[in-house]
Amino acid sequence: MKTWLYELIPDSALQLAGFQVYRADHDTELSGKTKGGGFSIVHQYIQRFNGVSGNKSAAIRRRSKTPGVIITQYVVNMPEGKSTPDFQCKPIPTTIKEGKLAVFKAVVTGDPKPEVSWRRSKGTISDKDKFQSKYDESTGEHILEIHKVSAAETDTYKCCAVNEYGKAVCTAILTVTEALTSPSDFRKLLRKSKADVETDEKFWDAMLNADRKDYERICSEFGVADLHLILKKLEEKKKERAQKKWKDGVIPSDEDATEKHSLKSAGRTKDFSIKGMMQKDTGFSQFDQEGNLLKTGLNQVDEEVNFLLTEFKLSNVDFVIKIQEVKAQEREDALFECVLTHPLPRITWMGKGNVLENGEKYSITVSDHKLIHRLLINDCKQSDKGIYTAGAGVTSCSAWLVVEAESDHASAGKKTATTLAGGARIDLEKVAKEQQIKVREEMEKILAAVKAKHEEGQLKEEKTLASCGKDGEMGGVTGPGKNSGAVKDKAAKASALSDPTGSKGKTNVKTSRGDGTEITLDVSRCVTKEVQLVPDDPKNKKHTRSGQADFDKVTESSSKRADVEFNQFQTFATSQDEATDSDGNKDSTGSVKCPRHTKKEWKQHTSDPGRDSNENEDSAGQVKYSSCSKQSQQAQKAVNGESAGSKDHNECDETEDANGSATQSRRRRQGPLIEDAVIDPGVQFICGLSDVSAIINETAELACKLSSEDCEGAWFRDGKKISPDANFSITKDGAIHKLVIIGCKEEHAGKYRFEADGRKTVAMINVKDPPRFDPENLRAFTEPVTVKVGHNSIFKVHFFGHEPIKIQWYKDGEELQDDNNTKIEKSPSHSCLLLRRCQRKDTGEIKIKLKNEHGFIEAISQLIVLDKPTSPLGPAEVTESSATCIEFRWRPPKDDGGSPVINYIMERQQVGRNTWKKMGDIPGVPIYRDTGVEHGRKYCYRIRAVTAEGTSEEMKTDEIQAGTLAFPGPPATPKVVSAYDDCINISWTSPSNSGGSRILGYILEKRKKGSNLWTVVNALDELIKEKKYAVKDVVAGLEYEFRVTAINLSGAGEYSNPSEFVFARDPKKPPGKVTSLKVTETSYNHLVLTWTKPEEKPEIQDEAKGYFVEIRQAECLEWSRCNPIPIITTSFAVKGLKSMDMYWVRVIATNDGGEGAPEELPNYVLAMPSPVRPKFTNHKMKSFMVVRAGNSVRITVNFEASPQPDIMWVKDNVPVTKRVTISNSDGSSQLLIPSSERSDSGIYSILVKNLAGQETFSTEVRVTDDPKPPGPVDLEENVPGTVTVIWEPSPDEKRDDRLHYTVSKLDSTKHTWSTVADRLFNNKFTVCNIMHGREYNFRVYAKNDMGISAPSESPTWGMEKKKEKFVVSIPNRKDCDLRCAPTFIVPLKLHTAPKGYECYMSCAVKGNPKPRVTWYQNHISLNTNTNYYISDTCGVCSMLILHVGPRDMGEYTIIAENALGRAECSTVLSVRE
Description:
Elements: H1 28-31, H2 41-53, E1 57-63, E2 70-75, E3 83-89, E4 94-97, E5 102-111, E6 115-120, E7 131-136, E8 141-146, E9 155-163, E10 166-177, H3 183-191, H4 194-198, H5 201-208, H6 215-222, H7 227-247, E11 258-265, E12 268-275, E13 285-287, E14 293-299, E15 304-309, E16 319-321, E17 326-329, E18 333-340, E19 348-351, E20 354-355, E21 362-366, E22 372-377, E23 386-392, E24 395-404, E25 418-419, H8 428-456, H9 458-471, E26 477-478, H10 490-498, E27 508-512, E28 517-522, E29 526-532, H11 538-541, H12 549-556, H13 562-567, H14 570-573, H15 599-603, H16 609-615, E30 625-627, H17 631-639, E31 652-656, E32 662-666, E33 685-687, E34 692-695, E35 700-706, E36 714-717, E37 720-721, E38 728-733, E39 736-741, E40 750-756, E41 759-768, E42 772-773, H18 775-782, E43 785-788, E44 793-800, E45 806-811, E46 814-815, E47 822-826, E48 830-835, E49 844-852, E50 855-866, E51 873-881, E52 886-891, E53 903-910, E54 917-923, E55 927-930, E56 938-947, E57 950-951, E58 955-956, E59 960-961, E60 975-979, E61 984-987, E62 999-1008, ...
Parallel strand pairs: 4-10, 17-24, 18-25, 34-41, 43-50, 78-85, 94-101
Antiparallel strand pairs: 1-2, 2-10, 3-5, 5-8, 6-9, 7-8, 9-10, 11-12, 13-14, 14-15, 16-18, 18-22, 19-20, 19-23, 21-22, 23-24, 26-27, 27-28, 28-29, 30-31, 31-32, 33-35, 35-39, 36-37, 36-40, 38-39, 40-41, 42-44, 44-48, 45-46, 45-49, 47-48, 49-50, 51-52, 52-55, 53-54, 53-56, 56-57, 56-58, 56-59, ...
């Protein structure tokens, strides 16, 4: 079985008892597949098999507590103490510049400890230098570092944690932005020397007069590399310039009071401003030149710039309603929608890993309250399907877009509709309004908690003030903790706001102003505290609104615009735009100096109350803060959580301007400390400004709403105040302030600001010039154009807008191009479409689309082509046919030609005649009643439709006879609508054949079960007019059936078929669910279900009378019923399944009361048989075959297995070559070599394997040919009476290890050849019993499995003795001693034999007396072992092993011994697999 896996699935999840699993992603050679894919067939099969076998293993999706994490559990019953992996902290989406280091971190949990791996969607992370995966044991974090990121690394990264009980997966998006400096620029920077920059006055003049956003550009132009050092020097030069202006008596104005910064987080950009001078130790957040978040502490005494790393967290934005899966047809529009918990002006939409931009293909829209975000995908195609993601901050949600092929080819090329998630539209506006109200209620409760805390903690604030005055310190900073972020709930928010010391997880900044107001700021966008510290002075009491940034912050956080909400942070630094000092004086921009006082200054406060306030007034609009000279040390202690009290009580103050410069001034306050007073929050913005995209020469409007109707405000554009004139109209309607721009021009684009009572809100106006139509011309264009067939039609429209403008014409959604019938004229101001020789089919929608870089616009008109109508539609329906009248009707023309039918021309012909009689013109109603007919005659009619454009072709009716009896056909079988004890309701449908006249009514009859008598329910004179009837003449408990007949003018027709029997009793309750539903048998085309009937519960569910079985394929959503009629058995065989398809199955119980709830199998069923281990069915398969070279080799193997196994053929454990053809089918496999060669010899093995097991079978194939004869034959005599025959080996001996030799002998006294030796594997043989005086000839043959070679003959041995005269001579007898010790003439040779084959060993030994021969294997005697055939013939000792096996491997020894000595010879046998 082959399946797709991926590397995150552990081996432990794939081990099956008794099975060998080859993984394609780990071992490509063994598996025979390439890497890739996912867990598909194996995963699905295991689920189905578990449902049948009772195994509890499954794949279950679980919900994680961490949003965005998907958990898959492998087992149903989790062992105690064990758990699936989960993410305690998931990776955060990151936006970073090119060349930087990107880091993803994740903390996972699970028992046993999960294995964590990283992947990406569009590529691999195999480059170890670029991607480094680490694990920090101290923090438990799994870290992925991406070094020197580039645009190619922009992707979705996936982190997977896997253990044996499940896996957890989450994703994070990496967005890489372009670097601001190219490598060539860096080379220029390196060439620029430090000394040149320090002496370049043009550079410093440009830096001193530029905005902060231009610093990097200026440094790049002048070739400066160390931007950090330049910023430090710049602060010094600004300080020197300020001091010089003070000495000259000039009040410096700070043009850099407003600093813009950009915060990028997960693809979003928010702008916020910090206006005014930053206090030395507040630790407000800034960005460095690379866009990173840095916390800046400016120490003016030491003149150092310390950049401390921090994170500025946005509020926790989450999804109230996430995007859902959308299924759309091709050419439809698909819409994704989501609702946020907090307003955001835009979110990041991604499709298949790519960031989507608003355009013609994708339309991204946001609701007015910034809570509902929508992505519209226009004209869906197959390439658009995939996963789409909506990202809001660190939170994201994803869903599939499934694009289905067009089912109706007739509508191809036409857009149909817009498809929503789930196919239905959720009331998102209602959800968004509820969320908006919820957020606003939370803000109101927080504001109420703040006010209550102020009132209750007044005494505590006095002590705090006294402590601050004593120590000379006005604020402290608590560093951010690990839980920094937005407050999670109302109670937490209220607690955070009322905590005077800050809370863990937030960065709190306390600021004291000279008017006695202390503000505690939370960098997580919540105001924690504000207390007004005002001496008891009438001049001070009447100014109570300065510095109320906390109330402004809390109120505007519930505003519709998320960027307005976020911009409120800037009011903490500029909360005194319209504030007054203690004397009630106001500077030009509303800023007030806020001195910090030493202990002695507070004691002298009353002696000189006005002097300090006058000295602190700044007409240039600066906000100044004074502090002791050792504030930097105290601020550092405040960051560490220590007391911020000053140890230095010098009376010198240090004043900072907005650029960070400091001036020394000495002041003293006279008088004691005055009791504090809590102030009113002041005017707030209920609704701030929103960005506006205005159309040129049209009206644009900006509006905001204040909390007070009595407050006046001012409007500014790009820093300049706006006054009402011909272009601007400023109105005030109660608390609503409006700015109307009349006739927008390009110069009206910019940044607009509204200020009121120290509060401000900002918005951008972008003036665009999209294509637009002239209204009068557009009105004329939209009027339908009507032409006659064959005439030309012209569409012309005038337009204007920013050039160039792309012009496109469409007809019924298809774009038009210039051709023989179409002419398109285009110009910068108008376009004309000419359609020549219009036909009726050209009628339809004409659309023009104009597009430029600012937008697009469309206009639609209609083309109507007039023609004569088509013929009326038949056949004619006869409604009445009597002796004096024929009435019939027909259908109007399918196409009226664009004009309504005025009348019809009717003609009649009597059958048998050739003339047509004109009946005249009849009105445009398609019905005619002919009263001038004769009884029994037949008539034909022809009809033509008449319109203003002409007369149609005729429609001819069939023959209609007047006055014949034509009875109606039978109605449909009556159906029982409902049944009760005293009434049964019946309904039926009209007969298909009315008999040529109208139906007058119906007669209904009933019959009791078991009776043959039908009784009429209604009398003949009381016909049933409707097609339903309530039968009340019934007896409770009896069964009835019903039939009905129709009556027309001719009389009663045939009766219908009887209805089903029904009891006259009250309705039953539907049955419950069936129980114990399971699959008992499966195959490739059917499955068998069994179940238990549902339990009967009185008054709840009644007994089931039958069952319906329904199935649906896994990819289909509609259920199909297998049995149209209920079955009464509790088992059913579902047939006609597709092999290996997945099906969902359910059973529904039914009775007279209706159908019960369906019972569905928990897992899908795979259409395949139960698992069967592979088994070979043909027991006569050959394990050895010999084939002549050139002939074909065919090996056929039959087997049975389920599921369908994987089949692999190997030769000598190596996959077969391409010249070998493998043919597989169900239950068999065949190997074919069309033309064999000797190299094809070997052992061929087949491996049949599936999930249930595997089986192998091997066949040895020997491809050979008739052997060639041996070489020359020599004869030797080593022992008297014997001849040793020696020959050269056959040329085929090296290629055929089964080749052997046969030796034949011819005696001169005989005339036939006799075989003296066979199956010789060596090249010599000793022939015994050679008689002296005879001649001998020897032949040597080579033999193999295919045949025998030609012989090689030896020379003649010996001389034939000539007959001489017999002379008897008695020689002298001399005894000869022929005894000798045993010696081996021919030793044993080494043998290597294939497993399962026979092995033949032989040697020659001589000795006198005849030696005793003993065979040994590994020093164990074999002479008595019956498995070995041992022979000793004339000194030739041989041993035959029939079936060589692994046990036969080893050393073989033969020992020959007699009385004179002992000889030994050894060899080694190797067995080859």
